[in-house]
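User: My collaborator and I are trying to settle a disagreement about how two of our proteins should look. Neither of us wants to argue from intuition anymore, so we agreed to look at predicted structures for both before our next call. Could you fold the first one, then the second, and keep them clearly separated?

Assistant: That sounds like a sensible way to settle it. I'll keep them separate. The first protein:
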Amino acid sequence: MNLLSLLGFDAWMARLRKAAAEGASGLEDRWLLARIEWEEEKQRWHRLALLALAVLGLTIVALLALSAAVVVHFWDTPHRPAVAWGVALVWLLLWGGALVCFIRTMQRSSEAFAHTREELGRDWHSLKERL
């Protein structure tokens, strides 16, 4: 006879092995989820960098156009000011659209790794209940 089975350690060791296997499987799942969310986060940062460049470029163009509009506004012909302000308005609207996209993307940064944090929170809660 086995001394461990007589003392009841056999069942305890089996449960420990099963818990370790479940823990390893759970860890692998969490790692996969974190990798997926990291790829999403990298894409978001890439988009954010491109939008930052767009906002910067459009800001420069908008300021140049607005400056040209102010200068042209004082020229002699009656049609030049309307055209210059129209061009400046178009650039200003484009800049505003890029800025809105940039701000919305920045506000979504708190959603990073939300699923992983949620899953780890449930795991922690479950572990605390078992203890």
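The second protein, kept apart from the first:
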Amino acid sequence: MGKPPSGRRGGKGPWRPDHASRPGHRPDRRGPRSELPGGVAVIYGWHPVTEALRNGSRTVRRFLATENSARRLEGELGALDPAPEIVRPDEITRLLGPDAVHQGLYIEADPLASPELDTLSDDALVLVLDQITDPHNVGAIVRTAAAFGVEAIVTTARHSPAATGVLAKSASGGLEHVPFLVVGNLGNALLTLGERGFLRIGLDSEGEADLDAVAVRRPVALVLGAEGKGLRQRSRETCDVVARLDMPGAIKSLNVSNAAAVVLYAVTRKLKAS
């Protein structure tokens, strides 16, 4: 959430993204295969693949499964359409890399259709991601967004991970329920949202307002800043208010995906009560 503070109040100390020191962080800079030429998405793992197959809007181009996983999936979904190609686990591992937890399921699919700013509903709750680049964090945000009924996630084509691979796995099926709305310029998109009547709330540890004291209404856009850098200046300037989460404990910082969960919980409670 914005620029995470240090362990002391005031948020002036150094901070490092959580993913840099996470146990099991992938040392292979190439990472797993996550996107094919033409924008075809790679989706693997039980929850992402199950939700993708349930989604009638998702066009599957290739479907690989181990015998055990295909049998389990048939028990969950019934007859599989398309039918998977039955393979050994190591055949999927060769496609993804040794660190990918694929659980015997792998698909290649067309990306989902993206909404436009002018097609968002008049009572929408949306998230705006300002150059959040780590796919684990973005995937976790997508999963939380699906749980809280977020209509769309606004992001940029550059400085953002693709909605595939590691992000899809971290989202645990959430990509099928919360579309990405990709824009060329985030500042201009925030201006357009403002013209449409959206209340734009930026989240930053040094925000001038306590989120608890902010009057929230729909439609609303919650703007989350990048790991380490926080909200960029133009993003701050195009928000109606920049708010902070006041933490009562000794540790004042949250990973951006955790902060997103707390903010969505707080805002949806406010919206329900209003």
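Some points you might bring to the call about the second protein. The CA atoms of residues 113 and 227 lie 28 Å apart. The two ends are 24 Å apart (CA to CA).
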